[in-house]
Specification:
Elements lengths: L1 E3 L4 H10 L6 E5 L5 E8 L4 E8 L9 E4 L2 H8 L6 E5 L2 E6 L2 E6 L21 E5 L1 H13 L4 E7 L2 E7 L7 E6 L8 E6 L1 H5 L5 E6 L3 E6 L6 E7 L7
Antiparallel strand pairs: 1-6, 2-3, 2-5, 3-4, 4-16, 6-7, 7-8, 9-14, 10-11, 10-13, 11-12, 14-15, 15-16
């Protein structure tokens, strides 16, 4: 039996960007079947994310669907504009006019359970907003400076973000206003790779003084996305 899958291009495009964190993607339906959900992670970078969207943004048959390489699927899907996606047992059919491409899905139990939390966010001690344009600039500067470390330094009602490689090498920093003054000054050090992994977009960024940063995706199409990044471990420990 073949079932046509309704989908939303913006949702699939965002899933593709999230596959930079982990190319293996498992999409589940919520208990009430109203949403699709993805809990992804990259333990080596101490980053996890939680994605939710209305079920009709990718309404597949069954409760779970898995991809060995979502980047590959999205590349094939994107060859034609607005193709039809059919689901047939263990594969998807990408159809455009009289052309059809078959894409084989991963078995449901092919991947380990990714529900384990590597990062826990307790509360926000400071927050600010960052635009997609600014995030794009940080991505560029992270590459140009070959930065390995990203530092968030909170002082009163300001936050200083700094990209750093090593002494005597180029660095980049920029200051932002906090949404409201922080109750205490603190500093967090992250792997700069998170700048490259975060999809370009407007975000509300919240920081916990104990070592976790939360990026909340701002949009108007009813997609929910939160990325959580843990502070880098001190190599001297």
């Amino acid at each position: 039996m073949t079932d046509k899958i309704p989908y939303n291009n913006d949702a699939l495009s965002l899933m593709r960007k999230l596959s930079d964190i982990n190319i293996q993607l498992t999409i589940k339906k919520s208990e009430d079947k109203s949403k699709i959900e993805i809990n992804g992670n990259n333990p080596s970078k101490s980053i996890i994310y939680e994605f939710k969207a209305p079920v009709d943004f990718f309404d597949f048959e069954g409760d779970t669907i898995s991809f060995f390489d979502f980047k590959e699927f999205f590349t094939l899907f994107s060859v034609n504009e607005e193709p039809i996606i059919n689901q047939n047992s263990t594969k998807l059919e990408i159809v455009k006019n009289r052309a059809k491409l078959e894409y084989h899905l991963a078995e449901i139990d092919a991947f380990p359970d990714e529900d384990e939390e590597y990062v826990e966010f307790e509360e926000s001690n400071a927050s600010f907003k960052i635009t997609a344009e600014t995030l794009k600039k940080f991505k560029t500067m992270a590459s140009l400076t070959k930065a390995e470390e990203l530092t968030f330094k909170i002082i009163g009602d300001k936050i200083l973000i700094k990209l750093f490689y090593e002494e005597n090498q180029p660095t980049y920093e920029e200051e932002f206003d906090l949404s409201e003054p922080a109750s205490e000054d603190f500093e967090l050090k992250m792997d700069s790779e998170i700048i490259k992994l975060a999809p370009e977009n407007d975000y509300k960024v919240e920081l916990n003084a104990n070592g976790v940063v939360k990026f909340h995706y701002i949009n108007n199409i009813n997609i929910e996305l939160d990325l959580y990044i843990a502070e880098s471990e001190d190599d001297d420990d």
